[in-house]
Amino acid sequence: MNLIEQYIIPGLSLLPQNMDTPNARAMLAAIGLQESGFRDRKQVGGPARGVWQFERGGVNRGGIYGILTHPKTKDIIEGVCRTLYVPADADICYGLVAYHDVLACCFARLLLWTLPGALPGPDGTDEGWRQYMAAWRPGKPRPADWPGNFKRAWIMVR
Prior knowledge:
single chain, mainly alpha
C-alpha cells in the first residue's frame, strides 16, 4: 500500500467528490512529505500534530480552529466529524489528528480548499510551493526539499 492509498484516498472519500482530483492527491502527498515525511505524528519541538502537522490555531490563526470556522469549510468538516463520530471541537480534533489519519487528511484537503485558484498540475512545482506556503505558513519551510517532494508525490499519483 502506498501513501496515497493509506493516507489520502480514505480521507478524500468523506469529502465532496469534486475535491478528489489528481492535483489534490499530489498536493496532499507533497505536503505530507514536506511536513513530516509521513513519519512524525507530533512535531519535534513544536505544537503541530498529525502527518500534515496541524496546529490548533485560534481566532484568525488558521489550523484546526480555522477549518472548523472558515465559511468555505465549516459545514463540510462538521459533516466529516459527524460521520466519524468526532465532536467538531478544535481541542478534540487537534488531539485526534495526531493519530486519526482520515480526519487529518480531511483537514489538510479543506485547508487547500480555502486557497483561491486551482491546485497545480505535475509541472506546477513553483505554484505548489506558493500554495503550500500560503496555506501552511511553515516556520522552517525547507524550500530545497520541495521540488523532490512534489515530484515524488506526482510519481505516486500516477
